[in-house]
Amino acid sequence: xxxxxxxxxxxxxxxxxxxxxxxxxxxxxxxxxxxxxxxxxxxxxxxxxxxxxxxxxxxxxxxxxxxxxxxxxxxxxxxxxxxxxxxxxxxxxxxxxxxxxxxxxxxxxxxxxxxxxxxxxxxxxxxxxxxxxxxxxxxxxxxxxxxxxxxxxxxxxxxxxxxxxxxxxxxxxxxxxxxxxxxxxxxxxxxxxxxxxxxxxxxxxxxxxxxxxxxxxxxxxxxxxxxxxxxxxxxxxxxxxxxxxxxxxxxxxxxxxxxxxxxxxxxxxxxxxxxxxxxxxxxxxxxxxxxxxxxxxxxxxxxxxxxxxxxxxxxxxxxxxxxxxxxxxxxxxxxxxxxxxxxxxxxxxxxxxxxxxxxxxxxxxxxxxxxxxxxxxxxxxxxxxxxxxxxxxxxxxxxxxxxxxxxxxxxxxxxxxxxxxxxxxxxxxxxxxxxxxxxxxxxxxxxxxxxxxxxxxxxxxxxxxxxxxxxxxxxxxxxxxxxxxxxxxxxxxxxxxxxxxxxxxxxxxxxxxxxxxxxxxxxxxxxxxxxxxxxxxxxxxxxxxxxxxxxxxxxxxxxxxxxxxxxxxxxxxxxxxxxxxxxxxxxxxxxxxxxxxxxxxxx
Length: 603
Prior knowledge:
This protein is of the alpha+beta class. 44% of the residues lie in helices and 18% in strands. β13 and β14 (406-416) form a beta hairpin.
């Protein structure tokens, strides 16, 4: 679209807040932006002379545009954020954070159980978190169970079942880890009090919990129950030690979010410290990629919006290193110069610097720059740790990707002599699998890859890495057995989170030394297959292969989808709304369709 062509439609764009979307000639969404005055903002792209090559390249690719009017600048900010996450346009900031975070769930049931989960479903249960570390969550749950006896069984402890005497106490009761609600030995009120104490511990508010135990200890001592009072005193001592080990900044600080940013070329790193009741309860760093040379303020605002939403922040104050525009007037933006808040900001900056340095160390192994002997040494180390029969001069790695179960794709990268052999990289459009089925997808692509190599009598790799769990490795091995190639190659699975390698049929995994060159090589191969697969996936999506998740619901069109996003900001929020709440926005008939879609998925 030229400047002259734009002038023909400029008058149709209102002077109101909203979001605008740029499409190229292939109808690919390439950029989403927000504006408090749509006409002025969009016009600036066609009337200014840009010094940035990237912005100039974007304008050259614009074929047509669409816009959506909203009520306020805040709504525009939220809708822009939702659309960027939904479609990940080519020229928008890219947040490189695809992790699945763990929650602590308080199950909706009589005498609720508490456990770790990575899947948040709309079942009425209470989900605390998410947390940045599964290990930290397990440590918290273990710590909690030392002080607050909870049941761990899955018995249906309804009042009628307990009254009928259907259950008997188990070993956990005799060990003191449970108070025996299954036999009516613990009331629902007493159990609920313990659950409330757990909520306070997870929020970093130990003062109320310790006050409760102190009151209990004094009451026991007054009744001459000195042994029980001593047990409670020990609990108090452990809680005090736990609080001493926690990162407490200041007792007078309440709930704060602290953010710092570090730019490095086209990459930016943002650290987030969540402070509750004066204690740092979460810390997390993300990497972002700039596409149009966005300012530090724009990148930081984008990251803050995403991180606060991801971690369900309740803080009304945000600490940042420089002023930023934030659309919510109820949130206070503070740029501290001294005091406890400045110390927090300095700590956040220390964390973001450490993250960048560690990331550089992790990615430092590039065998292209090594001598032939150095390359051979790394491969020999890998051969020794995995007890391979041959030196892995030829390594291939597979990874799957899908979009809400639609259009599954897979990617394979090839490394020869420890360096990428890009001519041998392969993409796979999965043909025989419908919906989310990583096992079947892996089975298909492995079969297609090695049946072809077998028919062409081409050289087989010494080592094949399957990026996924044991199920995906087993599925790959089914294809190898069908091709009668078992024993011709060594297959290993790579656990996504723990960086452990395991062989088919083995219960124990192999952990390469954390600082070894062989593990760095495996990491590089894994990162490369992720990059290659995601690029392919995004290209398919940008060509219109993937639809808005709401549009994929039968009976729901583009306008209805955008109306819902405009009101509720994200698909995740929409999925948690009741049918009545949806009907207020799109009418009863369509609300029933949308609610049934997400309800059936949850079931």
